[in-house]
Every structure is written in structure tokens, then in C-alpha cells.
Amino acid sequence: MNKLFTVLPPSAALAAMRAATPVVQATESIALADGLDRVLACGVRADQTLPAFARATMDGFAVRAVDTHGASESSPAYLELIGEVLMGTVPTLVVVSGTAARIHTGAMLPAGADAVVMVEETNARGTQIEVLTSVASGEDVLAIGEDIVAGAEAMPRGRRLRPADVGALAALGCTVVEVYRRPRVAILSTGDEVVPIDAQPQLAQVRDINGLTIAATVRRAGGEPISFGIVRDDEAELESRARTALDTADALVLSAGSSVSARDYTAGVVERLGSPGILAHGLAIKPGKPTVLAVCDGKPIVGLPGNPASALVVAWRMLAPLIRHLGGEELRAASDRRDAILDANVASRPGREDYIPVHLHDRAGELHAMPIFGASNLIFTLVRADALLFVPIDRSGLASGERVNVIPLD
Fold this sequence. Notes:
Layout: H1 10-20, E1 27-31, E2 44-45, E3 55-56, E4 60-63, E5 77-84, E6 99-103, E7 115-118, E8 122-125, E9 128-131, E10 141-142, E11 153-155, H2 163-171, E12 176-180, E13 184-190, E14 194-195, E15 206-207, H3 209-220, E16 224-231, H4 235-248, E17 251-255, H5 266-271, E18 276-281, E19 285-286, E20 292-296, E21 299-304, H6 308-326, E22 338-342, E23 346-347, E24 353-363, E25 366-371, H7 379-383, E26 387-391, E27 397-398, E28 403-408
Parallel strand pairs: 5-6, 13-16, 13-17, 14-15, 17-21, 19-24, 22-25
Antiparallel strand pairs: 1-12, 2-11, 3-10, 4-6, 4-7, 5-9, 8-9, 18-20, 20-21, 22-28, 23-27, 24-25, 24-26, 26-28
Helix pairs in contact: 1-6, 3-6
């Protein structure tokens, strides 16, 4: 196929790909201890209320709040100390008017008490404590059910488990979770000039950088990369290897072979792999315009540019969210962008998204971004960068001193 690009905005292209690609439905049960970064295949409801008992959030004294009203350093309240609440035990003592009980963070509030006075706000006076501040009912106390109540949804289906999520499920006594199987993503590098990374390239040859960077992107997005090696510039061989790879996996990524050169066969091969076929041949993005996006019989195919930095930017912008979708993750609004002040003018062209490597540094408490200009085939341009500067599709450039969006590279 040798025709002009049909260029789409990245957001529209990604929406079309997601709409034509079903979630991988296979699931598996795994131990909660192995659940970090896995995606829940079914929601979890709390079968108990947490906390199950009112408990202190500070070291101090359990009191009746009314007994402290009006207390201050100049006019303290005096309460009789009646004992101590031991950790992990149900207290038997009862706090009545004019009394207090020593309590520690996490301990159960004794009957009669409705607040805690921090130890820093008291002085010991023999069998009494001197209270130097007034507290309100419920102060420094976790109430029953303040965290979650029985029957409430604890975690929705499609949630990627974070460390806090694992801890919350542990608090509910979950030991096993049902998660989606990781999407299997086949990776096939193309080109007569491409050699394995353990080979010594001859003049005019390059190592297969993209194979590993794409695999790393797939793994970080929650997928399972499967390498299918390198295929030379032969249309029949490319089609044969691509069919085998697609039969084995849930998605296929082809590196290079996506431009309009007469020797670039990717688009033609992809058109024959299934329907509906190519959804976009070209993205309104720089770097990465010569990208092929297709869905063949329900499986997504992404044909990336050969230039390493271009391939990595497109893999981050398009492939990673597509894999998260395949893996059943409910995608939330982007939260990875940060504000920074731009340190140099950046030229662009309306009608495309630009992603420019930047160095981040702090100046007088403000985050600043200095562009690192380099060709799209230079992988070390990205290595030297801390983030990518995002230039929106409707902007003709960004001015020095402007507050901009950057996406950290981690």
C-alpha cells in the first residue's frame, strides 16, 4: 500500500481503537499479596464495618468532651485519672464526669468517653491530669464505620490495585482476588537494517532498540510482552510472521515499516489480517506521525515508526492506554501531568500534538522546564530528559515563561 496518510488526532484514534477492541475476558484468582498493579475483574463489597469500634487517633487521654469545655492554659480543667486502656483489649473501665483514662493511638475508646485530649495538651498532677485545651465530641477519635460500612462497595471492577488498595482489602480480610489476565502483546520488529541487541552491527545496521523499549512499555501498562524477533523487508515473510504472532497474542505491535515508502509493507499486510482493518494511517502527533492503527477481528494492531524516540512517544500516548483498556482497567482522567514554567520558546504547528523532551529543575520553589531539542531517532535525547512537554493540538507554539503541562518520564 502506497498512499497518503489519513491523519487522525490521537484522542480520536484512541477512542476508535478502544470502541473496536473488546476487553480480554479471561480472568484468574490470585493471592492478594500478588495483587499489586493487577486489575479487578469483579467489584469487592465490604462484608464488615471499619472501624468496628471507636478508637483513638492520638496518644493522650479519653475524656468526656463536656468536661473540657472552657479549659485553657490559664484556666485548666482537672480530671481524675482512673486507669489505662491497653492496646488490643476491650476496656472495662468507664469514663464518668470528672474522670479520664490514659489511651494510646489505635486503642478502643472506653465507655463514657467521646473524645481524646492529646498528651501534649496535658500535665500530670499526681492522680489527676491538668487539661490545657478544650476538645469537641469526636475529636481525635475514629468513629465506628468512618472508614467503610458493611455492604458498601470497597473496590470497583476495573480498578488497578495500588498499595493502598491492597492494604484496604487486607483490612477486610480478603486473601484472594479475581483479576483479569494480563493482555498478551506480540512484538515484531522489521527491517533489513535491524539486528539483535547482542549482535555487533555492521555499517548501515542498527540494534533492535524498539523491541525492548516497547516490551518495557507493555509491561509497565500491565501487559505481557511476547517477542517475535526481527523480520526482514519481505512482504510475504512479514505477513506470515504477523499472522502467527496475532494468533498467539491479544494484540500485535509492529516496529517500523509504517511510512509511505515503497519498501514499507506494514499497512498492506495489516489490511489483509482481518476486519475492519486500518482505522488510522497517520497520527496528528510529533514525533510519531507515520503510525498505523488497526483492529483485525477484534485484536488491535499498532504499527510504530522505526525511530526509537518516535516509537516510544507513540507507545506511551497510544499503546499504553490501549493495553490498559484490553486488560479491563477503567481508565480515569490523566493524573500524570504536572505544571511547570517553560524556560524557552517552543515552536509548533496547529493541528498536531507535540511532545518535546525537557529537563526539569527547581527555581525559587517553582518547577521549571528547559526543552531538549533533538531528532526523533535519538534515544539518548529521551534518556537525558526528565519529562515530555505537551503542546496541545490547537497551539502554534508555547512562549518562555508560560505555565505548561509536562509528563514525567519514569
